[in-house]
Amino acid sequence: MAGKPVRPVNAIDQTRRMLSLVTYLRERPGARVEDVARAFGISEDELVSDLDVLPMCGTSFRGGDLLDIDTDGERIWWHNPDDVAEPLRLAADEATALLVAARAVSTLPGLRESDRQALLRATAKVEAAAGEAAGASSRLSVTFESEGGVFADVDRAISERRRLWIRYYSPARDEVTEREIDPIRLVSVGHTYVEAWCRRSEARRTFRLDRVAEIRILDEPSAPPEVELRDLSEGLVQPAAEDPEVVVEVGPGGRWVAEYYPHDSADELADGGLRITLRTPDPTSLRRLALRLGRDGRIVSPAALADSARQAAREALAAYDGVEVQGEHGAHRAHDGQ
Question: In terms of domain of life, where is this protein from (predicted)?
Fold first, then answer.
């Protein structure tokens, strides 16, 4: 039934399935949704999720023919299979990007050996076809962030539906915490993340893999509550309506905040700055933004957060100047070397 949340998916398995789906649909124009889902052993919701991604794929990195695939809920239609089937011609930069990416993926610890060998064979064919254009790719390499098998452990936990224990560094709080999480999926939006149900906070959280200091796969089964997977096309940070509201005023030099932070409104100020209203599940994380802005911005509300940001600024100055810091909770003296 449409509308139900899809089950957690292994990213590698999904990629393999979608590649097979392209061939399957080309040979079966107007295929019924229920028949295709049954053939691939997945739910109709999972199939529709795949179909939402396929139209973003095509034959060129810069505007070639995309897969014109859609569905009316009962049947699946591919409107341009012949156009997409034309021989692929790669420019030098496209060939380089493709070869570098393929070699990087082949090193992923979660990749099945049969898939790794298939990818290496395909890479060799592309390299031969690209000729001199492939030369630059041999001088480039990509190293994935998740050292020490973090990616592999997360991918395995998702496949086997097992819980994870992690030690995780949070830069917003500058602390390392221990958590048990039920992984839902791996996502890549600039960095690689695992979206999971956190048993410590009893809420859905997203963890960046390169901030995982230690990880263990537990014997307990992973059992996250049924949650609707978020559409990440608009970015990873998507504040919810129930998140606390924060108002920030920035000068002309701080207008970039409106470009980088999702916000509800950004009203012009007389001095050329902006009054920005935004929502965040963790308002205290914005103290770091206030310190970065310096004279170019300030937190207006809530009052407690504004006071906290001012106190953080005083303490930062004290660390440099050796001055006495007077805050709401009393005074203390910065280190003076005595």
Answer: Bacteria
* CB neighbour list of residue 88: distance below 8 Å, 6 or more residues apart: 59
Determine the Cα–Cα distance for residues 24 and 119; give it in Å rounded to an integer.
20
3-class DSSP assignment, residue 4: coil
159: its two tokens:
């496949």
In 313-334, which positions are buried (b, 16+ CB within 10 angstroms) versus exposed (e)? ebeeebeeeeeebeeeeeeeeb
- Within 8 A by CB and 6+ apart from 73, the residues are 2, 33
* Rg for the chain, CA atoms, rounded: 25
Flag the least confident range among 26-35, 79-88, 168-177, 296-305. 79-88
The tens digit of pLDDT for each residue in 28-45 reads: 888 999 999 888 888 888
Residues in the chain: 338
In contact, 208 and 191? CB cutoff 8 Å? yes
What does the mean pLDDT of the chain come to?
76
Residue type, 231: D
For residues 100 and 137, is the Cβ–Cβ distance under 8 A? yes
How far apart CA 164 and CA 156 sit, in angstroms, is 10
Nearest residue to 257 (alpha-carbon basis) of 233, 288, 236: 288
How much is the average pLDDT of 307-313?
A: 84
pTM comes to 0.41
Per DSSP, the residues of 234-266 read G-S----TTSPEEEEEE-GGGTTHHHHS--SEE
Triad 115, 118, 121: Cα angle to 5°: 150
pLDDT in tens, 202-213: 888 888 888 888
Relative orientation angle of helices 33-40 and 44-53, to the nearest 10 degrees: 100
Structure tokens at 73: 């809920």
SS3 percent helix, strand, coil of the chain, rounded to 5, is 40, 25, 30
Alpha-carbon dihedral 107, 113, 116, 117, rounded to 10 degrees: 130
